[in-house]
Amino acid sequence: MTQQKTTDFPLSDSVREALAVTLRGCEELIPQKDWVKKLVRSEATGTPLRIKLGLDPTAPDIHIGHTVVLNKMRQLQDLGHTVIFLIGDFTTLIGDPSGRNSTRPPLTREQIDINAQTYYRQASMVLDPSKTEIRYNSEWCDALGSRGVIQLAARYTVARMMERNDFHDRFHAGAPISVHEFLYPLMQGYDSVALKSDLELGGTDQKFNLLVGRHLQAEYGQEPQCILTMPLLEGLDGVEKMSKSKNNYIGISEGANTMFAKVLSISDLLMWRWYTLLSFQSEAQIAALKAEVATGRNPKDAKVALAKEITTRFHNAAAADTAEQDFINRSQGGIPDGINEINLPLGEGGAALGIGALLKSAGLAASSGEGNRLIDGGGVRVDATVVNDKGLKLGAGTYVLQVGKRKFARVTLG
User: Which residues are ATP-binding (predicted)?
Assistant: First the structure.
């Protein structure tokens, strides 16, 4: 982002460091000058700033794309500020219309409660739980009641609400907009009033909602929060934003070996963007590593370091080391550690089993037909030898079956 003029007076080294940490990888900081004033005041009074992130529990799990804003929270937390992890159990009942071209179906209370159970546990893999304030916006939203919601709605105009891109586009396209959708940005903005937030974080798609929070704080006589938007992380393909629906994601609950291998699959160019948004290394350390690669060091070394850092964060250092060795074994055509051990009976009368049926029984193919298609594509190996014959039958014995680069099973027939 373009750096703005911050203040007309000299800043201490600690404030400059805090500003640099805030700006790292961010899309926008609005208004930057006000954030600097808050940092200066915090340093002078010894009072930590209140930094808020709200997430609606719309799904049971999160992927590393969601952790971009969590990483920023952790960086600011490490500077001594108070971070508030807000679970939007009330706002999820409304449904966030951000970026939608149709009304989002609200979730039931039961669905929300189930999803919320995992959110904070997963967020704690990034945040320091001992220094994190966890809140649910039903605490104050339920208490508002009908009268309070009407009074809140009187503090924002329909004209300003229609400036929002998704509402504007849907209106002009003749697509329905439900009245309850106008309540979403109001209730999210009211969260900032209830929490007396100094800074609210969100993805770039949340900018409108965050600005509503600033407006409502001023309406309620509070100093308006600053807002910090973070870019949406590109997924494994380096093109689309990370998404489970696009299958270009890394789930934070995925196994260490899979997580490590997926990080290594990204392009060298995307790697540096992931370093900025996902790594806890300093910008100076990343710049030094980038310079080494530019002068001849193998970029794979940098990618391995990133893969180990991310895998360690969501598992542990030992699991990351094991995942690295597993990847080396696979790349050299070896057999990874810890593959599934399966015992299967032979056919009737001790008859050998066809390879297609065997792949299905071992869980390496959804059906015998899919197994045969994999063989046609050259993606099946038995004891490291590529299978070309769909009529292959295996008798009693132990075999290592492999499909693609990552699926293995050691099968004993007999």
Answer: 244
